[in-house]
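Checklist before submission:
- one chain only
- standard amino acids only
- sequence pasted in full

Submission:
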Amino acid sequence: MKVLVTGGAGYIGSHACLELLRAGHEVVGFDNLSNSSEKAISRVRELSGKPLRFERLDLLDKQGLGRLMKEGFDAVMHFAGLKAVGESVEKPDLYRRNNVEGSANLLAAMKAADCRNLVFSSSCTVYGAVQKNPVTESHPRAAVNPYGETKLAVEDMCFELARVEKGWRIALLRYFNPVGADASGCIGEDPKGMPNNLMPFVMQTAVGRRDKVRVWGNDYPTPDGTGVRDYIHVTDLALGHLAALGRLDRFDGALAVNLGAGRGYSVLEVIRAASKAAGKDIPYEIRPRRPGDAAAIWADPSFAKKSIGWGATRGLDEMCADHCRWQTQNPEGFAS
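Returned file contents:
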């Protein structure tokens, strides 16, 4: 297939490009590089040994999107979007414009080019304050921050589009907590500024970029008192997108699918596994709980197995080993 990948230079987008190329697809990627590096694209080319066309393009550039889509694509994988919860609270209009308006522009360009196959990067954040674990796709949706509101808005846009117009096949992949890196260590997560997520903070601490990991609360009703989350290896996640792409012909309209490992790991479990991978103890300190943090969230991934034939295969030790390899080989990320 000929696949267009938005946000192709980003953490998840670059791994998806790599797995698409390894699977024999023709790939064109674009990114505005606001939170990514074109070095990721160069390394994907090197790792795959295959051509990967890249364009610097923004979702808000309607003309550019229209021009690109008219070249003809079998499907689109849509990763482009801002994703920092804290920043979304500070800049809600920026998030709505980039994530929601940008996605509307993409869908309009796809429609004009008669391409109606889409795999969308959604998130478990659409479930809001989780009421029951494991989380199934039927769990009520609710946004608890502007970032979550944008994911809900794009999902609703896709559901409505598929309802009123025949021919759309849309996979809304709600994933949990992506971590790890390609086993080569050549591409990985490279957040600009202070990391928002646990694993990059832990690994940056391991290589000396941070002094210690802050653990927000150790008095939750969990086995060791720290928060529990469902972590999924980014390569498993990328392969989940390929699985969805391969089953889109069975879709009729828009369908939401959880991508998670189906089990939770606590913050302290992650730090211990990361210390094992790094070969040294990673320092941490306990801080008071942060408001709004849930005690535990993990996915029920059984529908993914049924609907797209996918399941996660990589455990926490492999996630940490691969993420550590990336961070050790690239202590300053792509700027190393």
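Reviewer check: The chain has a mean pLDDT of 97.
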